[in-house]
Automatic annotation (TrEMBL):
Keywords: DNA recombination. The keyword Chloroplast does not apply. Residues 1-15 have a biased composition (Basic and acidic residues). This is Phage integrase family protein.
C-alpha cells in the first residue's frame, strides 16, 4: 500500500504549488474549529484531524467547516469506537471508510452518506496524490502486507527470526518485546511507548499489563508471549520503559523507528497486523467478547465487524452444539 504522509509543511512553504496553498483564513478556521462532542474526546484527536485537514485543504475547495465536520466525526469513530490507531495509512483505507459509512451513519440520509463518503475518499486521494502514488479507489484484494490480515504461524516464526537477528542485545530485547506486546496483548504504538516495568505484574496468574494513556486498561498477556516481557522486566529494572529503556519521552515513532532501522531482510512486524492476530486468536478460542473488548480498549461491538471475514466457518455439529448449550434456566443444584 502506498504511504500517506504529512505534507502540509511543504504545501504551506509553496513546495507543492500545483496543490495550492490554503489561505490564512482557512488555516485559522481549521485551528479554531470545535466539534459538537465532548471536549476530552476532541482533545485526544484534534491535532491529528487538523494536520489532515491542512494537508487536504491544499487541494480542495470544500468549505473548511464542511471538511472539518466530516473529518472530526470520522476520526472520532475510528479512535473511540473502532479502536483504530491515529495512523493515516490505516485510517484512510477505503474499506475502513466504507465501514464508517455503513455502521456509523445510520441517521444520515442517503445523500448525506454519499457526501461523507465522497469527501473522505477525496481526502484520501489528495494525500496519495501528494506522494505521487496515483492510486484510486478500485477495490483490490488483500495483499500479504495488508494491515487487516493476521499473521500466519509461518510468518510469526519469521518474525521471531527477525527479532533474534538484531545486532545488539538491546535491539534483540526490544524487538522480542515489541512482538510480545503486539501479538500477546494487542498493544498499539502509543501503548507500548508508555509502558514501564512498574506497570507490569508478574505472578501466578501470568503477566498483566497496566496500559496508560487515552485507552487506559488492564491487559493479560497470552501465555505463549509472556517470557520475552518477563525477560525485559528482569533485565531493565524498575521505573523504566520496557521498550527502549533509555528513552526520555513518549514518542510514538520509537516503534516505527526501530522497525525501519532494524537489520535483516524479508518480513518485518506491523503492529496493526500483530493486534489483528491477537484479536482473532481470542475470537477463535472463544474468549468472552466483553472481556476482549475491555482488554482491547474497544467500546462497541461494531469494532469487531472487520474481523468476522477472517474467522473460519464452523462445521454443522460445532454450530449446533455451541448454540444449543446448557439452558440458563437449568437447575444446577
Amino acid at each position: 500500500m502506498p504511504s500517506i504522509h504529512r505534507y502540509s509543511d511543504d504545501c504551506h512553504r509553496g513546495v507543492l504549488p500545483e496543490q495550492g496553498t490554503p489561505p490564512p483564513r482557512a488555516l485559522r478556521q481549521i485551528e479554531d474549529y470545535t466539534p459538537n462532542f465532548p471536549a476530552q474526546h476532541w482533545d485526544a484527536i484534534a491535532n491529528f484531524v487538523r494536520d489532515v485537514a491542512r494537508d487536504v485543504q491544499c487541494a480542495t475547495s470544500t468549505p473548511v467547516s464542511d471538511l472539518m465536520s466530516v473529518l472530526a466525526r470520522y476520526v472520532l469513530w475510528a479512535w473511540q469506537t473502532a479502536g483504530i490507531d491515529l495512523d493515516r495509512e490505516t485510517l484512510f483505507r477505503p474499506d475502513v471508510i466504507e465501514e464508517f459509512i455503513d455502521h456509523a451513519c445510520p441517521t444520515l440520509t442517503s445523500s448525506s452518506r454519499g457526501t461523507y463518503r465522497s469527501r473522505l475518499l477525496r481526502a484520501r486521494q489528495t494525500l496519495l496524490d501528494a506522494e505521487g502514488a496515483g492510486v484510486h479507489f478500485d477495490p483490490t484484494p488483500l495483499s500479504p502486507a495488508d494491515p487487516m490480515r493476521l499473521y500466519s504461524l509461518q510468518e510469526l516464526s519469521a518474525l521471531h527470526t527477525w527479532a533474534s537477528g538484531q545486532h545488539t542485545v538491546t535491539r534483540r530485547r526490544d524487538a522480542a518485546t515489541l512482538l510480545a506486546l503486539g501479538a500477546g496483548a494487542g498493544l498499539a504504538s502509543e501503548d507500548i511507548v508508555r509502558l514501564k516495568t512498574d506497570d507490569i505484574t508478574i505472578d501466578g496468574l501470568g503477566v498483566l499489563l497496566k496500559v496508560t494513556g487515552r485507552r487506559a486498561r488492564l491487559v493479560p498477556v497470552l501465555e505463549t508471549w509472556e517470557q520475552p516481557i518477563i525477560d525485559a522486566v528482569m533485565a531493565i529494572g524498575p521505573g523504566l520503559p520496557v521498550f527502549g529503556a533509555q528513552r526520555t519521552s513518549f514518542n510514538n515513532n520509537a516503534v516505527s523507528n526501530l522497525v525501519a532501522r532494524s537489520s535483516g531482510v524479508g518480513i518485518k512486524p506491523s503492529l496493526q497486523r500483530l493486534r489483528v492476530t491477537w484479536i482473532l486468536h481470542h475470537l477463535n478460542v472463544g474468549t468472552p467478547v466483553p472481556h476482549l473488548m475491555k482488554a482491547a480498549g474497544i467500546e462497541t461491538l461494531d469494532a469487531f465487524d472487520r474481523y468476522l471475514r477472517f474467522l473460519p466457518e464452523p462445521d454443522a455439529n460445532e454450530f449446533r452444539t455451541a448454540l444449543r448449550g446448557p439452558s440458563p434456566m437449568e437447575d444446577n443444584s
